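Entry 12.
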Amino acid sequence: MTHSSAQRRPIAIGLAGLVILAVLATLAFFSGDLPFIGGGTTYTADFTEAAGLQPGNEVRIAGVPVGRVDGVWLAGDHVLVAFTVKGAWVGAASTVAIKIKTLLGDKYLAVDPLGRAPQDPARTIPVGRTSSPYDVTQAFSGLGQDISQINTRQLARSLETISVTFRNSPPDVRQALRGLASLSESIASKDAAVTRLLAGTRKITGDLSQEDGRFQALFSDGNLLLAELRQRQDAIHALLTGTQALAVQLSGLVSDDNATLGPALRALSQVTSVLQADQADLGQALALAGPYYRLVGNTLGNGRWLDAYLCGLVPKSYLPAGTSPAQGCEPPKAKGAD
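Predicted 3D structure (tokens):
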């Protein structure tokens, strides 16, 4: 009995552990919808158009992110938007507007929390308290499509026909019709150029929207650089102040020593001038000093005495043969010397 209960105990513990893990995983997955964790309050609002708003866009109050857009659906002749607000108060008279976040077309939902009573999450905010922005990119795209579908040549012929029909009309009417004919001809001649221009504009907006991430990274890096410079402002100010103080001290040092440095520099200039003038004589003196000091070294190099030779002190007739120089006073060479 004890042995079987001991065998069943690990199985029961393992099953209980699996159940607890499954419950914890479920709670973690649906944590955003649990009221006791604080997932926020979900509201709905009607708009005349979506204006490019997408699920996941930010919800802001006074420029501060307080939630996100949960969904955007078509509900009859209007658009229904669901959004969640966390940690912020939304009044019963609050207005909701779709705003442009970046120049590249990103949107966010701006909530203006008006009213004294809180907004009932079960009641949809009506169209009268919502607004949508005017999308310039979509307007240009639609204009390009509409112009591309117009038969400009047929329009020009129609205006010319109207001008001919009203040729017997008063001068002002005929002039106006001629102006319409000229306008139609201009539009017909520039049709291809306008189409290319709008196509190029559409391509540029598409390329910019694809590079939205890089632009945001660039702006973020610029903000980081400005923040770092702001933090280093005191250090930069101290560096500039110290440099200015150093310049003042150097100026004072030069001013104080100007009376001493001036004569010293002038005397140095005179010495260099004398040395430059006597450069040839100095060169000759150095050239003669070399052999002289070599002979002096040879004379004093045998010990604590001087090697000397006296020439002419004794007549040559008194000297043994071969011991006196043939001419002059050169010392005789030792035997065996070259």
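Annotation: The mean pLDDT is 75. Residues 139-210 form one domain.
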